[in-house]
Amino acid sequence: MLSLCLCFCLFMVLMIIISSPGVNQVFGDSVISVIPVDSYPQALVFNPSNNNIYATNRDSGTVSVIETDNNTVIKSVAVGASPHAIVFNPFNNNIYVTNRDSGTVSVIETDNNTVIKDITVDRSPEQMLFNPSNNDIYVANVISNSISLIDSNVNEVTNDIEVGKDPVDLEFNPSNNYVYVANKGSNTVLVIDTGNNNTLIKEIQVGSSPISLKYNPSNNNLYVANRDSGTVSTIDTKDNTVTNNVRVENEPTTIEFNPANNDIYVANRGSGSVSVIDGSNSTLPDTVMVGSEPVAMLFNPSNTDVYIGNVVSNSISILDSENNTLSSTTDVRSLPLALEYNPSNKAIYVAGTLTSTDGLVSVIK
Question: What is the pTM of this model?
Fold first, then answer.
């Protein structure tokens, strides 16, 4: 009887410790580390050449370099004003950062994590894309309504392409080497033929305020989240025509592709839900309620789950993609604005902020 009572007491103590504030849960997906960074981190990228995570800090004008062996910041790199997007270039192992308020792109050499060049582009560069077919960097300049092309051999702008109003997202299609541009203000998606001097070959009318693009390699379709229409347009990239418009819920904001089941996941910010589109026929079999205002999403290849960042709930919803149900919710205690997967330790990194001065990157595993 004494031993039974002792076991029960130890169990209760363990439960209290696990549920106490500030203590990470040890079962399932939980926050295993919280890394302080600079102000307002909003984008992340993993560098496979050194296994570091890089975070752009909008209000500090810096990029935090996180060493993932011990999850600590090893350097804060000064870039331009309001760093927005960040991409890794496997051709030269450099990191590229768009500085929205400076009208520049900073190039970080990752051997010693220093800025080797600031490249002037057009006004308000935000999103960015690396094109593996030509090693160029494509930069969407929102106010200038243009795409700047950076030749990463010399890190210079070689061309500026006029596009539609408010280009806010870019996607590459490896089946035809085209780059697609979502123009929020024009309600269009433009097609750039990168093998033909980066010429515009088509303008595709979609729904209202297209803000996110995702390519599906299983069927060569491109999916477009139309925020103000509450729809997702399916573009057949063989002839670049819209074949379907799927009604989802309010303010579809972000799209993610799941290669484990070939489904498309759509985060509906205004409804607190994720719509699941069947990649085989573009139908909508499932809608899953998550947290308040989901804005970020990521597929985890180590467990085939889909992770959703809910900015008002300060949480990460985790969807089991085998049956498309909510499997768990993890509290990150900050606004989760961006997610990145680290294949070296199979962890998810979450960029978030508590106030205008507190920046955090949470590590979930």
Answer: 0.91
